[in-house]
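S1.2 Input.
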Amino acid sequence: MTARDTDWDGVRLHVVTGKGGTGKTTVAAALALALAHSDRKVLLIEAEGRQGIAQLFDRPPLPYEERKIAIGPGEATDGRDPGGDVYALAIDPEGALLDYLQMFYNMRGFGSALTKLGVVDFATTVAPGLSDVLVTGKATEAARRKQPGTAHGFKYDAVVLDAPPTGRIGRFLNVSAEVSGLAKVGPIRSHADTVANVIKSPQTAVHFVCTLEEMPVQETLDGIAELRSIENIQVGGIVINMARPAVLTQEELKAAPDLAAMAEALAAAGLHTTEPLAASLAEELAEHARLVEHADQRRTELEAAGQPIYELPLIPEGIDLAALHRLAADLREQGAA
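S1.3 Output.
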């Protein structure tokens, strides 16, 4: 398949969310690799402090600093079109607060003292909306950061944020509402408004990761509906992850199994007690048909949301760097990056 243009031209901040267990971090990492083609520079940010990105790329735990962790795919095999660079950052509220104090007050040292006194933990516990503003603020700052001499004037061509799960994504992104009870005016409010202006702009898209199971599909649809109720947040694509390949046609799945023919084939293969074995295989086939039908129903429900859908295969061997590159290529071919 020939790679086509991305569905998300103009998007600089890709927010990735999904129900726990759907492979959200894996998809975020694959998307970052997919975006890091043709000498582009991409920043992959983890917001939850689980060090999932470090584990995926087989790296030590990431500090609160941006560092290169991978090279993206090149568009040509002759070396004339090299791959880009993937940088990673694991955000924590403490580090984000120190950045905030330095950026607005030139008081990073004072922030370190606050950390030692436990004030940071107290503030982010009493006002969890502040923590979200600090984390999203770091992501939006990276997406807006200028760098003279580049073709587009920005340090990063794209930023991918591995965001909190779907059940919390609306509150996480609706930063203006979250700080309304904390500050009506002043630098915190100003900072939140700046963050909101980026999140609620065409430069940002929120992608949903889902598997073809009832609960993840319902959470995805609920999350999309929630974001659509928040003015100007752009819903992105739906990534169906860990999809099982179709091994039989619809006609084969619907046809009643021929137990006699199955027993004969098993006997020809040198197996004994073929009739009970054929019956067991027929039961497995019926269960497989039910699972395929269920997955097709869930896929139809997702299609009704009206967003672009991308499908990534289940990789039974597990996810390593080679598997991430495979998933990245799939995303590129389908137009996600």
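S1.4 Remarks. The chain has a mean pLDDT of 86.
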